[in-house]
Amino acid sequence: MADTKREIERKYEATDDTRLPDLTRAAGVDRSVHRGLTELDAVYYDTADLRLAADALTLRRRTGGADEGWHLKFPVATGIRDELHEPLADTLPRPLAALLRSRVRHAEIAPVVRLRSARDVHHLTAADGALLAEVSVDRVRAERLAGEGSGTTAAWTEIEVELADDGDPAVLDAVEKRLRKAGIRPAHSASKLARALAETTPVRDGSKPRKNAPHTAGDHVLAYVRKQIRTIVDLDPAVRRGLPDSVHKMRVATRRLRSTFKTHRKLLDRAVTDPLGAELKWLAAELGLDRDQEVLDERLGARVEALPATLTLGPVRGRLRAWSAARRTGSRRRIIDVLDGKRYLDLLDALDALSADPPLRPAARRAPEKALPRAVLADYEKLARRMDHALEHPPGPERDTAMHEARKAAKRARYAGESARPALGRPAKRFAKRVKAVQTVLGDHQDSVVAREALRTLAIQSHAAGETAFTWGLLYGQEEAAAEARERELPEVWARASDPGLRADLKH
Length: 508
Fold this sequence. Notes:
Blueprint: E1 3-14, E2 31-46, H1 51-54, E3 58-63, E4 69-77, E5 80-86, H2 94-99, H3 101-104, E6 110-125, E7 131-144, E8 153-163, H4 170-181, H5 192-200, H6 217-241, H7 246-263, H8 270-306, H9 316-328, H10 331-340, H11 342-356, H12 368-391, H13 397-424, H14 426-464, H15 470-497, H16 500-506
Antiparallel strand pairs: 1-5, 1-8, 2-3, 2-6, 3-4, 4-5, 6-7, 7-8
Helix pairs in contact: 6-7, 6-11, 6-13, 7-8, 7-13, 8-9, 8-10, 8-11, 8-14, 12-13, 13-14, 14-15, 14-16
């Protein structure tokens, strides 16, 4: 994987005659060291329809400077980006191309803008000589290479203040205070590329296209559907990079989307959504191979660590690590193969097609306050039936299975409430919150069922290896007690979620 750096910087407007103020008067800054002038030549790449720019991503090939090469930047927050670097090459390096696949897919990436900058660099250091920030005055010349405005040029000067690695963001505040006092204001564009595109694109009409607010029930459902599609695409690079919780978040987005298709089948044509739902189920299952093991590892690991040494008999930690490693072997490689595969990319294309040409049924034209409560309450009724079935069983395998089925229904009802929240407001929010509490209890119970099966397997392996199985049996008993506690808690939590007043509020 490419080298990654967290870039924290701020940009400011300047002119050719702008002078930097004395930044040693900024709090914490002891010296300003002039590092000289550097010539940078960067070519920015994108698709013909500027998909990367639309998502505030920048891909460039730059020569000059200490870090020449290919750079790909992902936005994290305002003024913060993750920059991935690959050595200079004639073609786009494969690791960077993979991170763009969910957005680019079959489109060609080609040069769109060339930026040549004369960068005058100053280092701000602390009293001990430690680097605090780099301040550069950039005189930029931009040329549009493709698309609207091809051949158009623009020029400007800007000041860029970048925090040193592991630096204190307070330094940026202190420097900004000095710059503002000198009459230097923050830049309007978040990046050089954004400014170059804006200044080289022909202006036909000063007005921006208006986004229509959701009006019908179909509008609201489509807004939620599009949000989940966007989430899947956005999380693809994070999953490839192995960022924390990215697999889980992507899996949740696939489940939300699939659940929405089921909940709103009276508004969306099932001939289109059912095949997509099947593919989303496949994707969620592939993502779940690694995530489910991760959750189980965390649960069992916490149980083991909580035991006193006198009750940890035998090579418990070593066996747990070996067992987990054996189950995880190849799981990450498998996920990457899935994301690189034709089936996944075809799914993304199909979701885009649905978003662009929604398969709405006549009922989608109804008012949201009439159509959406019916859909939410239909999911609630399904949950109620499964809860009644689960609660009528005595403790044992049949109840475990029934509670797991109720958990699935609770998840769907919760997502239904969440999707209706923009239209129905507080009642939908309260409904989703109460049902989520039910889902949490049922989910923890199911996690205990899975953990007990794993502990039984570990006990059998330990016994076969001539080790004592005492600790695994002890942990099994703890999980049994945890499941029983959840079973005792469930009726009260369900009573709050099944309050008739809660459902009545959704209708008004």
